[in-house]
Amino acid sequence: MEDPELAAIRARKLEKLLAERATVPVPSNAWAGPIHLTDATFDTEIRKPGLTLVDFWAEWCGPCHRVAPVLEDIAKARTGRLRLAKLNIDENPRTPSRFHITSIPTMLLFKDGRLVDGIVGAVPKAEIEAVLAPWS
After folding, report:
1. Is-above-0.90 flag for pTM?
2. Angle of helix 125-132 relative to helix 62-77, nearest 10 degrees?
3. Which of the residues 46, 61, 122, 132 is marked catalytic?
4. Where do the domains of the chain lie, and which CATH numbers do they carry?
């Protein structure tokens, strides 16, 4: 059986460590991963300042899964300059319909909420970077 005084000391120490951890800021250049969009959150997220690349995808789509790590690599390399967002078309049908998405993967590039470019298909990394180059 643990000494109650020792248990109290451990509890206070743990509480202090958790409080300190909560106040440590996350560096602005840290990759936070893609933003998962829904029909309800789409407009709010793309209107945020800067570039947002939205990946329209589905779980059953093989090419979507092949291009996903490429998109993440590109977004990691452009942390702070490009946000990567993903929208599952099966779970959120309204937004793809709004943008006339008929093939996936489709990636749409928004700057300050305005659609500026797009890519259809699981294209090579160099082609995606060429589309992003003028904007980032």
Report:
1. no
2. 50
3. 61
4. 35-132 (3.40.30.10)
